[in-house]
Amino acid sequence: MSSVDQALTQQELQSMHAYWRACNYLAAGMIYLRANPLLKEPLKPEHVKKRLLGHWGASPGLSFTYIHMNRLINKYDLDAIFLAGPGHGAPGVLAPVYLEGTYSEIYPNKGEDEEGMGHFFKEFSFPGGIGSHCTPETPGSIHEGGELGYSVSHAFGAAYDNPDLIVTVMVGDGESETGALATSWHSNKFLNPIRDGAVLPVLHLNGYKINNPTILSRISHEELEALFKGYGWQPYFVEGSDPLEMHQKMAATMETCVQEIRRLQQEARSSGKPVRPRWPMIVLRSPKGWTGPHKVDGHKVEGFWRAHQVPLGSVQENPQHLAQLESWLRSYKPEELFDATGKLLPELKQLAPKGQRRMSANLHANGGMLRRALCMPDFREYGAAIDKPGTVSAENTRPLGKLLRDVMRENMTNFRVFGPDENSSNKLDDVYAVSKKVWMADYLPEDADGGELSPDGRVMEMLSEHTLEGWLEGYLLTGRHGFFSTYEAFVHVIDSMFNQHAKWLAMSKAVSWRAPISSLNLLITSTVWRQDHNGFTHQDPGFLDLVVNKSPDVTRIYLPPDVNCLLSVGAHCLKSTDYINVIVSDKQKHLQYLDMESAIKHCTKGIGIWDWASNDAGYEPDIVMASAGDIPTKEALAAVVLLREHFPDIKVRYVNVVDLYKLTPQSEHPHGLSDKDFDSLFTLDKPVVFNFHGYPQLIHRLAYRRHNHGNWHVRGYKEKGSINTPLELAIQNEIDRFSLVIDAIDRIPRLQVAGAHVKEKMRNMQIDCRNYAYEHGVDLPEVDHWTWPY
C-alpha cells in the first residue's frame, strides 16, 4: 500500500472498520433475524424469519460508501445527502441510518437497544413492516430505487440551486445498463459550479446483476476510464477486496474528490466564471456480497451472482445452513460493537455526524421542510379578452408561457422550467426573456443568434425525457418548484418514472414526518388532434389511461378548453402540493370560449353546463352533448349548432369537462361528483354523446357506475390516422361534428326515422371535406374557420 493511501491513522482505521462491521451485521440481521438480535444465545431456527427476503449483494458497498462520507462530513462540516441507486440495497442504507440514531428518533419502537434492534430486524421485508428499497419511510431518502435508472438524475435535481450541498449517489452497475442512467451522466453539462451544489457519483462495480455479469464490470480499466472521461468526468478508482486496504483507499480517494469539488467551486465563485469543470467521480470495485459467505454447498457466493439476494436459504430446514449463518453473523463480532443493552459503543457512536449534519436527518432529504411557496403573479392579467364565446382564436399555451416567465422572474432561486428541446415549439418561449436555457458545454458563434443559451439559465432542456423527469423529481423532493412540458406522444417515455413518483407520493402521505412537497406539474401538449403533419407515430393520447391507474390521492387530470381555463388551471397547479397534475392543452390556435371570470368559475367547479351553448333551460333535454379537450369541444359545439339548425325544436344541453375526475363517483376520487349532481347534469335517462380527447374507453371506465351509463356514447381516438388534415383526422376517428350529429340522431328516438335526410347530408359533408383535403392539402375553409354563430 502506498503512502498516499494512508489517509487514516491506525486508530481511525480500526474504528471505521468496526463501524462498518456493525453496519454489515445489521444488514444481515435485517434479512434473517426475527429474534435473538445480539446472538446472546446459540442461533436456533425459531430465531430466523420463515420467509427470507431482501438483498445482501450491494448492501456492504453501500454502507461502506455511506460511512466514508460521514467521515468527511465531520472533518469538513459538509452539507450532504446520500442516494442509493442499487434497487434493493436498503439494508446497506438502513444500517448506518439506524446507527446514527435518526431511525430511533423517528420510530421510537426501533430504539437503540436490544429490544429496538429486534423490532428493527423483524420489520424489514416483513408483513406490516418496510420494503427492501429505501422507501419514503427511510429517513434521508429521496430515491427509492424500486425501478433502476434514476439515481444520477435525481441527484442532480437535488444539487441544482443548492450551492453548499454535496449529493453522494451510489450507482449500481446493473442500473448502469439502463438507458435512463446512461443519458443522466450528461447532467454534468448543466451544473453551474457557482450557484449549484455538486454530485459525487460512486459507480459500484460488484460485477453481477441477479444472475448475469454486468457490462461495465467486464470491460477493461482503460475502456471504462475512457468511457467516463468521454462523459466529461474525472474517474478515480478504488478497487480490491481486503477491507483494511479498501478503507484506506476509499478514505484517500473520497477526500481527494471532496477537496477537488470544493476547489472547483471556489475557482468558479471567486472568478465569477461558470465554466464547466471535469467533476470527480469514483469507481468502486468490490465483491458482490462482500464479507458474506464465500461458498454455500460448494458453490461460490461472495463475488458472484449468488450473493445478490439471500446467500443462505433453507435455514429453517438445513442445519448446515443454520450453522453457516451463525458463523457468518458472529464473524462481525457484535459483542465488540454493541454493549450488553444493544447500544452501539460510544467510541463508535461518535463517528456519525450530529443533528442535521447526519445524512439521514438532512432537511434537503425531507424537502417539504425547506419548501417556500411561490411568489405568484395574478394569472388573470395574462388572459384572453372574450366578448363573445367561440368567435376568436388564440394559441392556448403562449399566455401560459408569459405567466411562467413572470413566475420565474419572481422565484429565481427555487423554480425551473423543464422540457425536451420543445419549449419554443410548445409556445412557452417567453420564459427565455427572463432566463435562458442552461448550457455549460461549448458555444459556437451562431449560438448568439437565437440560441438562448447561458450557464446562468434556469430553463432545463435536454432531449431525454428520462433525465428531465429525474431532475424535476429531485428538485421537487428537495423543496423547490418546477414545470415540465412535453409532446403528448412521447410523454410515454416517462411512464415508469411517473408510476414510481406517484407511488412515492402515495406512500409519503402515510408517513407523518414527511412534509408536503410541490406538485409535479406536467403539461402535455402538441396533442393527438394536431399531429396531422407528423402522422400516426405522433398520435397517442394514452398517458391519461396510465394516470388513472394510480392513487386518487395523488393524481389530477385537467383538460382546459381555452386560454383562460388553462391559466386558471396552471396557476392552481403551481400552488398545490403532493400531487401529479397532468394538464392537456394543445399549442396551436384554438377557439376561445370563456372570459376570465367565467373560466375561473368553470375550472373551480371542474365541470358544468355552458348556458350559452345550450337551449334546454327549463326543459329536459333531448340529448346531452359533452366534451373534454380543445378540439373535441370545438367539434361538439359545431355539432350542437348543426342539430339546432336542422331540428329547430330540439333541446340540447352542452356540458364541458375540465377536471376529468369529476366523472368518477365520490367514493373513487375526492374530486368525483355526487350521484345527485352527476344525474342533474347528465340526466337519468337521456342519451349522452361525449366527445373526448383520448381513448373512448377511459370515459366509460370512469363513469361506468353512474346511473345513466347505459345511454352514454363516447367518441375519441381510435388509432386511425396518418398524414391528414386536422378535420380529416377527426373524421377518421369519428370525433368530428358530422359524426356527432349522426350519433345524436341515432340516439334520439323521434329522430331515428325523421333524421335520415340529415344523416345523409352529414355523410356527404364528410366526403366533401375529405375530397377537398386530398386536393388542396388543407381543410375546407368554412369548416376549418367555423365560429359559434349565436
UniProtKB/TrEMBL annotation:
<dbReference type="InterPro" id="IPR009014">
    <property type="entry name" value="Transketo_C/PFOR_II"/>
</dbReference>
<dbReference type="GO" id="GO:0016832">
    <property type="term" value="F:aldehyde-lyase activity"/>
</dbReference>
<dbReference type="InterPro" id="IPR018970">
    <property type="entry name" value="Xul5P/Fru6P_PKetolase_N"/>
</dbReference>
<feature type="domain" description="Xylulose 5-phosphate/Fructose 6-phosphate phosphoketolase N-terminal">
    <location>
        <begin position="8"/>
        <end position="369"/>
    </location>
</feature>
<keyword id="KW-0786">Thiamine pyrophosphate</keyword>
<dbReference type="InterPro" id="IPR019789">
    <property type="entry name" value="Xul5P/Fru6P_PKetolase_ThDP_BS"/>
</dbReference>
<dbReference type="InterPro" id="IPR005593">
    <property type="entry name" value="Xul5P/Fru6P_PKetolase"/>
</dbReference>
<dbReference type="Pfam" id="PF09363">
    <property type="entry name" value="XFP_C"/>
</dbReference>
<dbReference type="InterPro" id="IPR023962">
    <property type="entry name" value="Phosphoketolase"/>
</dbReference>
<dbReference type="Pfam" id="PF03894">
    <property type="entry name" value="XFP"/>
</dbReference>
<dbReference type="InterPro" id="IPR018969">
    <property type="entry name" value="Xul5P/Fru6P_PKetolase_C"/>
</dbReference>
<dbReference type="InterPro" id="IPR029061">
    <property type="entry name" value="THDP-binding"/>
</dbReference>
<dbReference type="Pfam" id="PF09364">
    <property type="entry name" value="XFP_N"/>
</dbReference>
<comment type="similarity">
    <text>Belongs to the XFP family.</text>
</comment>
<protein>
    <recommendedName>
        <fullName>Probable phosphoketolase</fullName>
        <ecNumber>4.1.2.-</ecNumber>
    </recommendedName>
</protein>
<dbReference type="GO" id="GO:0005975">
    <property type="term" value="P:carbohydrate metabolic process"/>
</dbReference>
<feature type="domain" description="Xylulose 5-phosphate/Fructose 6-phosphate phosphoketolase C-terminal">
    <location>
        <begin position="587"/>
        <end position="788"/>
    </location>
</feature>
<keyword id="KW-0456">Lyase</keyword>
<dbReference type="InterPro" id="IPR019790">
    <property type="entry name" value="Xul5P/Fru6P_PKetolase_CS"/>
</dbReference>
